[in-house]
């Protein structure tokens, strides 16, 4: 028998009204504008765009405001919004080689063409809380220096000259995988894996990347290069008959270089892990590259001994919208399920007690 | 002869559309108002908001893969002259998308083309170049100049 139970409409309505009130908070404090969030919480917007998998800074700012700063909730909102939109097509692959560079560093070569450019980084800050920020003091503009036009060469191209490093990476399948169109299937090609990793949860991938460094699927990584900056997005427009630039997006790219002693399949050479993420998201891009490399264990003939090398484990748990949906659904009413379980446990206890009593066969214990 | 003219026209249109799509919406509107024209037009399609899947390449230059999506807005207009203009640009600015489609249609007339070029395209290219130069110089100021400390006496 199934009995539908209604109720709680008024409670839900009032809860949402209360949520709106608490979101606004103290009315004597000015309300945040989307511009303020987009400009001053820029890296939060970057994370929401990356894991929401939609590049739109203003929508990310709106989602953050609506979610009261709960970034996973904001990511959820953005994912929900994207399902309402039609898909117009696929861009041409972006060319990170012609990026308008805002930061570029290498941990493998000190003097590389284009140089080490730190950009707006937290690195080398002392991590001391800065009371001046509490006072809204005027902030100086950045210094300027004549830039040269030296092309910013890829570190992988330097190593490639001696054949010391593997090539950029190909995929056997002809069709480019798309998780938003076809359900997940394992084993998965590297292109589809990278798509999942690029929108995967930063915390989860960070922990897995960390685990590979601590010996769980060791892969001896170096940061070959990290670059952050804007790239053009181009789209072939059928009605025009040619490609046009649609504008620019900011991305972070990480080329991880890993020691590889060789296997039956490949000679000793450096192998690579790749990270590509929306916005200025360096930690995420690095974690992505570490996970990408770890997940290539099969392809490179390595022993699979650690969680980070287990494709199904990593990819099917990397999406925080799915994860939060499944974990958080537990708090929704399970009254009927629980009644059934309750009944079951009572019956089992009854049987347990009867069995015990039978074994005891002591008259006074039968009381 | 005809083929090269066609290619030139096509290249100019491609460059124009790319510059317009990359422009800041408010700046574009401001320049458009400076042009002082307001042609009647019929919306054939949109402006409509949708998504495009963004692709990268494994390792930067290898096999392509999808790594996310971006909002885009597209529009198609027809002018009274019959000229049809298209636009696609990142973001959700409907007015900008419509404006670009109108400019695309208008620019099919040679006289209007040079007007648009002078009044809109060149100023946009200039401000884009200025923004890029500023970014480049700010970034260059954070470039590390290594020096070596010589220790001991030799």
Short description:
The complex is a heterodimer of chains A (367) and B (154). Chain A is α+β, with helices and mostly antiparallel strands and 367 residues long.
Your description of this structure?
The complex is a heterodimer of chains A (367) and B (154). Chain A has helices at 9-24, 34-40, 42-52, 57-66, 71-82, 155-160, 190-198, 202-213, 282-294, 297-300, 311-316, 320-328, 335-360; strands at 54-55, 87-93, 100-105, 221-237, 242-258, 271-278. Chain A is of the alpha+beta class. Chain A contains 13 helices and six strands. Chain A has two domains: 11-82, no CATH class; 96-121 and 150-167 and 182-325, no CATH class. A four-stranded antiparallel sheet of chain A has the order 3-4-5-6. By secondary structure, chain B is an alpha+beta fold. Chain B has one domain. Chain B has a three-stranded antiparallel sheet with strand order 1-2-3. In chain B, helix 1 (2-22) packs antiparallel against helix 3 (94-106) and helix 2 runs antiparallel to helix 4 (110-140). The longest helix of chain B is centred in the C-terminal third of the chain and has 31 residues, at 110-140. The chains are: A alpha+beta (367), B alpha+beta (154). At the A-B interface, strand 1, strand 2, strand 3, helix 7 and strand 4 of A face helix 1, strand 1, strand 2, strand 3 and helix 4 of B. Strand 1 (54-55) of chain A pairs parallel with strand 2 of chain B, so a sheet runs across the interface.
Most residues in contact, chain pair and counts: A-B, 82 and 54 residues
In percent terms, what proportion of residues of chain B is strand?
25-35%
**Describe the biggest sheet of chain B?**
3 strands, antiparallel
- Overall helicity of chain B: 40-55%
- Straight-line distance between termini of chain B: 73 Å
- N/C terminus separation of chain A: 37 Å
Taken as a percent bin, the fraction of beta residues of chain A is 15-25%
Secondary-structure-based class of chain A equals alpha+beta
Mean pLDDT of chain A: 91
Strand tally of chain A is 6
- Summed over residues and divided by their number, the pLDDT of chain B gives a mean of 92
State the strand order across the main sheet of chain B. Answer: 1-2-3
């Amino acid at each position: 028998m199934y009995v539908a139970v209604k109720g709680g409409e008024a409670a839900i309505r009032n809860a949402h009204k209360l949520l709106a009130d608490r979101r606004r908070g103290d009315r004597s404090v000015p309300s945040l504008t989307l511009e303020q969030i987009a400009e001053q919480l820029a890296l939060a917007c970057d994370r929401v765009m990356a894991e929401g998998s939609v590049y739109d800074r203003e929508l990310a700012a709106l989602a953050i405001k609506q979610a009261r700063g709960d970034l996973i909730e904001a990511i959820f909102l953005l994912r929900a919004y994207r399902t309402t939109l039609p898909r117009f097509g696929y861009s041409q692959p972006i060319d990170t080689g012609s990026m308008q560079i805002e930061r570029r560093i290498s941990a493998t070569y000190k003097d590389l063409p284009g140089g080490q450019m730190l950009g707006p980084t937290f690195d080398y800050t002392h991590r001391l809380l800065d009371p001046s920020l509490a006072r809204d003091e005027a902030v100086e503009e950045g210094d300027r220096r004549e830039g040269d036009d030296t092309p910013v060469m890829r570190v992988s191209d330097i190593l490639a000259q001696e054949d010391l490093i593997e090539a950029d990476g190909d995929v056997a399948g002809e069709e480019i995988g798309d998780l938003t169109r076809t359900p997940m299937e394992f084993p998965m090609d590297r292109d589809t894996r990278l798509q999942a990793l690029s929108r995967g949860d930063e915390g989860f991938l960070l922990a897995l990347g960390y685990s590979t460094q601590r010996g769980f699927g060791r892969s001896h990584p170096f940061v070959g290069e990290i670059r952050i900056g804007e790239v053009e997005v181009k789209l072939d427009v059928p009605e025009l008959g040619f490609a046009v630039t649609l504008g620019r997006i900011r991305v972070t790219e990480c080329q991880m270089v890993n020691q590889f002693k060789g296997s039956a399949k490949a000679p000793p050479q450096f192998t690579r892990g790749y990270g590509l993420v929306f916005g200025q998201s360096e930690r995420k891009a690095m974690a992505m590259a570490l996970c990408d490399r770890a997940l290539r264990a099969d392809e490179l003939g390595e022993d699979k001994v650690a969680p980070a090398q287990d494709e199904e484990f990593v990819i099917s748990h990397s999406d925080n919208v799915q994860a939060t949906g499944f974990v958080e659904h537990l708090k929704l009413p399970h009254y009927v399920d629980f009644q059934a379980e309750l009944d079951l446990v009572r019956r089992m206890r009854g049987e347990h007690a009867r069995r015990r009593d039978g074994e005891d066969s002591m008259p006074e214990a039968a009381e | 002869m005809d083929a090269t003219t066609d290619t030139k026209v096509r290249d100019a249109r491609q460059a124009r559309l790319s510059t317009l799509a990359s422009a800041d919406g408010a700046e574009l509107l401001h320049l458009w108002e400076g042009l002082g024209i307001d042609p009647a037009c019929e919306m054939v399609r949109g402006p409509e908001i949708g998504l495009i899947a963004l692709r990268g390449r494994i390792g930067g230059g290898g096999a392509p893969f999808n790594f996310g999506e971006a909002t885009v807005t597209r529009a198609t207009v027809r002018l009274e002259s019959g000229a049809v203009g298209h636009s696609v640009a990142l973001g959700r600015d409907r007015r900008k998308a419509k404006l670009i489609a109108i400019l695309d249609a208008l620019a099919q007339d040679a006289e209007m083309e040079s007007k648009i070029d002078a009044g809109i395209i060149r100023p946009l290219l200039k401000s884009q170049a200025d923004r890029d130069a500023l970014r480049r110089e700010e970034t260059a100021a954070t470039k590390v100049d290594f020096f070596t400390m010589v220790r001991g006496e030799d």
